[in-house]
Amino acid sequence: VMGSMLGSALLALPLYQRIIARLERKRALLVGIAVWLAGLALLFLLEKGDQVVWLVLSMLLIGVGVSSAFVVPWSALPEVIDVDKIINGRAQEGVFSGVMTFLRKISTTVALLLLSTALDLTGYLPPDVENSVAQPELTLRAIHLLITLVPGALLLLGLVFTRRYPIDKEGYALIRKRLELPSGTELPPGEQAGLQNLLKRVY
User: Other C-beta atoms within 10 Å of 114: how many?
Assistant: First the structure.
């Protein structure tokens, strides 16, 4: 089952690259979040006795959604770095990359801490090597909620922030054009106004 999720995540990587190339990063991430939410919704509705095919389908959808989280944020990082370069006048690639890596690691640590705490509070029983252990009903419900509703709520929050991401293909083209100009040179008035409007939305 886990293999289906990892496999679909791997196969979906070229899909998001094509969406980014043809459209923009924001739309690629919105598609990924929508598919991810669909997979979580299906997983939430599953009950004991349902056919395994539905579980596999939910994992496939989740994998396709997860794939966007591996591609889009890192591909958007150069855009953010370039915007900061225009505003502050210096390149800070190392700072932004470090913050991205730190946030990724800290979020994983917090998620594991919350998961282990929730399992302890609901009476989770460690597995026995010789005999299978039946988990309490409260533990099973907690696990069900932790892998469906909690990530679903976080994805909805991410959906809100993603929709507000201001940099599109046209805007980034202006950013790159401005950075390629000699120092002290400005864009034509119309393009300069568009760039200033974009920078206001960013900050």
Answer: 12
pTM, two decimals, is 0.88
The 3-state DSSP class for residue 147 equals coil
CA–CA distance, 203 with 197 (Å, rounded to integer): 10
pLDDT of residue 130: 67
As a residue count, the chain comes to 203
Q: In this predicted model, what pLDDT tens digit does every residue of 176-193 receive, in sequence order?
A: 999 998 887 889 999 999
| H/E segment holding residue 49 | none
Residue 167: closest CA among 131, 201, 133, 132: 201
Q: Is 178 helix (H, G, I), strand (E, B) or coil?
A: helix
Q: Which amino acid is at 130?
A: E
* All residues at 6 or more sequence positions from 196 whose CB lies less than 8 Å from its CB, including other chains: none
Place of tokens 């196969």: 11
Q: Which residue has the tokens 């889009």?
A: 72
Q: Judging by beta carbons within 10 Å of its beta carbon (0-12, 13-18, 19+), is residue 63 exposed, middle or buried?
A: buried
DSSP 83-132: HHHHHHSS--HHHHHHHHHHHHHHHHHHHHHHHHHHHHHTT--PPPSSS-
Higher-scoring residue by pLDDT: 152, 21: 152
Quick: pLDDT tens for 130-139: 667 788 889 9
At residue 160, the pLDDT reads: 93
